[in-house]
Fold:
Amino acid sequence: MKRTAFSNPWLPILLLVPQLSIIAVFFYWPAGYAIQSSFYLQDPFGFGSTFVGLENYTDLASSTNYLDSLKFTVLFTIIVTFLSLGIALLLAVKADKVLRGARTYRTLLMWVYAIAPPVAGLMGVMLFDQSRGNLTQLFRSLGWDYTLGVNYWDTAIAMISVSVWKQIPVNFIFFLSGLQAIPRSVREAALIDNPSGMRRFWDITFPLLAPTGFFLLIINITYALFDTFGIIDTIVKGEPGNNPMTLVYRVFVDGFRGGDLGGSSAQSVVLMVLVLVLTIVQFRFLERRIHYT
Amino acid sequence: MTYTKAALGVALGLLAGTAQAQTEIEWWHAMGGQLGETVNQIASDFNASQSDYMITPVFKGTYEETLTAGIAAFRAGEQPNIIQVFDAGAATVIGAVGATIPVEQLLNENGVDFDINDYIAGVRYFYADADGQMIGMPFNSSTPIMYYNEAALEAAGVTPPATWEEFAEVTGPALRDAGYIPLAQSHLPWIFTENFFSRHNIQFASNDNGYTGVDTEIMVDHPAIRAHFQALTEWQESGLFHWYGSGWSDNQQPFEDGDVAMWLGSSGSFGGIQDRVDFPFSATFLPYWEAVTTEPTQTFIGGAALFAMSGHSAEENEAAAAFFEFMSSPDVQYMWHRETGYVPITTAAYEAAAADGHYDRFPAAEVGIQQLTLPAGEFTRGYRMGFYVQIRDVMNREYGRILTGETSVEDAFSNIQEEANQLLDRFARTQG
Structure:
């Protein structure tokens, strides 16, 4: 890091004010409010609230149902991140090699990105629908009695597939540009050293893609944790029932839908801590192994 | 802020110069699809019927979303004049004294005649407080009834069952052998829990089902309902019953497709089914267990009520009162009943429908109201429990687990009872 000297000490602060005030208004203030509410039991209409200390947290810790959601969220995040990164990388590597009609291929692979999550969820619901869904019919013709909304794991499969499908284009764009940034000379040198495509990919291309991959890993974990809300809501149609739920969806179900603001504030604080820990771990341990050029 | 308001005032004043001083009010509702069109029709009829007031209906999504939007708006001071709140949200909104103006008080203050005895028995007290004062005006009142595909029953050579015993021994097997899925239903907490208790006149919660206090304990873990769910799992096994998940329409669709012969749904589903199906269908009362009672009682209303939210000017409240008067008039009630299948809320409207021959043409349309006027019992008025939306979520989750074989009936009900009581306890403390 190079230290840049400003002649006027107030100038850097002034330049940072817009950014800092946005963070303060949209992050610190609501976060502080959430922490405060998590220690209270509140009437939904806001007429009264009682200080209950840590009760909202101990309730969460003793709720097997909340712990189930936690387990599902971890599993969901791992699978969605792994699949959407893996598939996108495969597509990017293949698209990178295409010589004729490359633009068309790339555009076709990218445009799913333009679909809003609820619309993606709706398309998923149509494909996986119990009585009319094309995929449901395909599964049934293969002898698999697939039923969205009845079987826990069947619903989970729909949630995961739609979330992965929706995220692939973003990863694809980044991986493709990452691949194209690898110098031609390095690739040619590797080609002379080793004719095996597989070895060259793992020894040369993959490490050089690591900065992109690391960035995408964080983006994808955040996506799976938070941005899949719209998809999940559309798939469970607002009636969670015995379907799986992620932690973010639970905050909505218990807080907004159920009116338990204290309990759901505690849930969002837990979520906040979780993300904080995750981010620290990622930057402390993973980033050290990555070399930026 | 003041400038904007002043500018708005001037602009409105200019507009008003041409169209008299109209008071505008807003109505948030949760009626989508064909129901939403009828709601818009009622609003435009009201606007056309007089020139002093103007109501604007706004569709806010599902029942839960509408209530949530209303609460958020109230906390921000932007609440609508009238909001539609569903049965399960009644405790929340009625518990928040000061958030709404009791409809009885609103009407009396604005010189509209109000007599609670004009309302049909099963409708009267569901949205009333402990003293019997009506807080919310019942709007779309429905009750669970059993629809059946007449062609299917004819093919199987059976009549609709009056009791669950008859269904298990006669109707169900005959329909199954005729190639149908005999039974489906769309809402386990509403149809097979709340109304199950009412139909058999069993106490559902302490404090008179929750009406007389907030320190209520649910009494859902009852042998009769456990036996009912045990029977459901057996019927599911033997092909007499099919469960399509906790989504309403996932369960209704197979009935409309003609795969399911009998479907338990809302009396308010009548209009939609009539529009969509091409087979002859009719409806009858919710069956009961003869082993539990030989004197089955009435069910209570589900659906939703309209609440006048506080914090508005006297003119706007007057407009809201005028709209309530219009909405509860026999003509409008009959129109609403005819178009949607929701029950008319007043005796006058019921008589108007009968006099017009509506029930001769569509006997199924009368089933809901007949079921609501069956003999009452000690525990048939309904229930009033806080955080009930979450309690229903717990029920849906546990019922789903029973029907997918993940848990036993005993464990599920003891879980529901325990979790629901924790929620009720939390709610009681928010009210203290």
Summary: DSSP finds 20 helices and ten strands in chain B.
